[in-house]
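Appendix B. One record, verbatim.
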Amino acid sequence: MQHRDQPTTIVILGADTVVGRALCLLLEGYGYHAALLDSYPTGVVDELLDGADLLLLAPRLDEGVREAFVGAMGKSAPQKAEMPVIALTSATEESPQEERVIGVPWPCETKVLVERIESALLDVPASTIPATQARRE
């Protein structure tokens, strides 16, 4: 992987929980920048994702909120439609039905989550990565 000047930014939807805040701290410990959104964000989705490289859906996020948020991605900024999305799903939750959402069982080891994040970031079409950025090592 290549170095990048700025850390990868991960937006966590559903971060108004203890788990969401813990995820933020864990990811920051791995060199990511984490931005928090509560479970019921207000505003234009693409604007809320401004500067983000990946969307992480916290476990136990309301299914309707998840579907509405992911479905609105790319409506005002088409490049946001290609942003990788990872949903952390607990044993009591169904896997995401959205084709573009990568499901990761929760809880999981931090190492596994980081590997899935890196894999998702590498699968992003190059056209959606700003020219000033490259993937982090």
